[in-house]
């Protein structure tokens, strides 16, 4: 049960999934005029993804991504993003067929060309070889950030802000937008406070602290296109020697600090910060402002995890115990 009113995540049993894949196989063969030999499920990652093999090759030809959360990833956002990347000559996955209806799967699917290669998480010891994958990310992301954006927010303009201060001032409304179309009903903030999961006025107090921190940044942040998912498993090294980014689901208009900040939240390897900063060469942002930006993004990620807990459980005692740990982490961060 969930604390919030949500649309359920698509979690099919084996029988249902096999039936849908069987019907989808015939649909694809007719559409692509290509004989499909099998679907092979990919164990890595949280989604329902399959390699698709055809009878004319021993290698995977396509990648099938079954959308399990309504509206995430947004097909329209990906299409817009890929158009912008084409304009600056940055490679991206090639989508062959897309559908966000319930014709084949409840929330739709994305079919794209398979990118053969080895990801950085498999290719390197990501802690021992930080300079390898971090430098490659910095070089690619620097090119993506050349695409200037008209505002801070999502690519479709569902939420947009002219300054980074405005963005963080409205953070509690921004975060729910990043979960796709899963939420309905009251704001998660209201639901969490009404359930007594956090102290009364906790979010109001936190909003003031966040405002004070972001307002103290002297750097005038400019919005750019950001990739948003700088993780080793998302950087592919192809047999042809190319470096390819996959999984643009987190793309948005934000400040460039977002990339490294999110990476450090999920991959806190030693030397990542220094290697990235050295290679990216973003001299316009001083050390203190950059660190403040990382703190703000880490607070945002922790708040997002608090919201996520409400999708999975509505037991007050269990939620309070877990959320308390996140609140302590947020408190420590904001002592910056």
Task: Please outline the helices and strands.
Blueprint: E1 5-6, H1 14-32, E2 36-41, E3 48-54, E4 62-66, H2 75-87, E5 95-99, E6 109-113, E7 118-119, H3 120-123, H4 130-144, E8 152-153, E9 160-161, H5 164-169, H6 171-177, E10 183-184, H7 188-194, H8 202-215, E11 224-226, E12 235-237, E13 243-245, E14 252-254, H9 257-266, H10 272-280, H11 287-312, H12 316-333
Antiparallel strand pairs: 1-10, 2-3, 3-4, 4-6, 5-6, 7-12, 8-9, 11-14, 12-13
Helix pairs in contact: 4-10, 6-11, 9-11, 11-12
The portion of residues forming beta strands comes to 5-15%
Rg from Cα: 21 Å
Helix content: 40-55%
CATH class of the largest domain: Alpha Beta
- CATH-assigned fold name of the largest domain: Aminoglycoside 3'-phosphotransferase, Chain: A, domain 2
Please trace the helix and strand order, writing H or E for each element: EHEEEHEEEHHEEHHEHHEEEEHHHH
How can the largest sheet be summarized? 5 strands, antiparallel
Determine the CATH superfamily of the largest domain.
Answer: Aminoglycoside phosphotransferase (APH), C-terminal lobe
**Main structural class:** alpha+beta
Q: What is the rounded distance between the termini?
A: 37 Å
By DSSP (H or I, 4+ residues per run), the number of helices equals 12
CATH architecture of the largest domain: Alpha-Beta Complex
Shape: globular
Poorly predicted ranges: none
